[in-house]
Design brief:
The chain has 259 residues and is α/β, with parallel strands linked by helices. It folds into 2 domains: 3-66, Met-10+ protein-like domains (GMP Synthetase, Chain A, domain 3), CATH 3.30.300.110; 88-258, 3-Layer(aba) Sandwich (Rossmann fold), CATH 3.40.50. Helix content is 25%, strand content 33%. The protein is built from 7 helices and 13 strands. It has helices spanning 24-34, 91-98, 116-124, 138-150, 164-167, 190-196, 217-230; strands at 3-7, 12-16, 38-44, 57-62, 68-72, 75-79, 106-110, 130-135, 157-161, 177-180, 202-211, 234-246, 249-258. The strands form 3 sheets. The protein has a 7-stranded mixed sheet, with helices on both faces. The chain starts with a strand and ends with a strand. 39% of the residues are buried.
């Protein structure tokens, strides 16, 4: 049975989806026996939901303290998966985007969580001018501040706590690239993301959930409508399937240029 593993060789948390007809306690014990670093096992009780993108979980084995330090591509991320959104499965996608950032760019991440994307970008592209992360979950913002500190990136990363719809206004016309890694809510922030780009334009990485055989048509329509409202032109650069989201659904990303 597959499970998500968050943490390090010293301490990790396993998050597992257990069918109703299976013995959760037995499965948790087997996971901990085979993975000595797993100190806690959490059973998924719900899908991710709400503005904090959290899922309800139940501790079925191990330590009640589920705070860990996760290691990804050489940087450290302190977090508690019960309090903040974090997906270890998206490490490759984070690197894909980080590799596209060029020196002297100003990048904005709407829904930056524990600052994993800002840190991934600043680590991969040391010549980036500034990476701004906006996050509404106060617990995630607190972890983000700690993560920026322990990775020694305070000179590159600015963190903002609050609702991106209002906090983004400060960055209108100042960014070369905007990421919206909020698959269920990205449409709400698309207009402000476009407004954050410099007058000459820039690039947006738009995440959403695709359904059925045509995963991108709905998002493409949303992007075109937003561009038309704001009098912008767009050019699609890439369309990518990221991860299965639910039966018949995929988390996807569309990279596009705005001018």
């Amino acid at each position: 049975m597959g499970f998500d593993l968050i943490g390090s060789r010293e301490k990790a948390v396993a998050i597992v989806e257990i069918p109703k007809d299976k013995n959760g306690k037995k499965i948790a014990e087997e996971i901990m026996i085979k993975n000595k670093n797993v100190k806690s096992v959490l059973k998924k009780l719900s899908k991710r939901r709400g503005k904090f993108r959290l899922r309800e979980c139940k501790l079925i084995a191990g330590d009640r303290n589920t705070e860990v330090t996760h290691i990804e591509h050489g940087y450290l991320l302190k977090l508690d998966p019960q309090k903040v959104y974090f997906s270890p499965r998206e490490a490759t996608e984070r690197q894909r985007v980080a590799e596209q950032v060029e020196p002297k760019e100003t990048v904005l991440v709407i829904g930056s969580g524990v600052a994993v994307l800002p840190i991934a970008i600043a680590k991969k592209q040391s010549g980036v001018e500034k990476v701004v992360g906006i996050e509404i979950n106060k617990a995630a913002h607190k972890y983000a501040e700690e993560n920026v500190r322990i990775n020694k990136l305070a000179h590159k990363i600015t963190l903002v706590s609050g609702d991106a719809k209002t906090k983004c206004k400060k960055y209108f016309g100042r960014c070369t690239r905007v990421l919206i890694p909020l698959p269920l809510e990205s449409e709400k922030f698309l207009d402000v993301a476009m407004k954050c780009l410099k007058p000459g334009g820039g690039i947006i990485h738009f995440y959403s959930v695709g359904i059925g055989d045509d995963l991108f048509s709905g998002s493409l329509l949303t992007i075109k409508k937003s561009a038309k409202r704001l009098g912008k032109r767009i050019k699609i650069l890439n369309k990518k399937e990221i991860l299965p989201y639910a039966p018949g659904k995929w988390k996807v990303c569309i990279d596009f240029k705005v001018s």
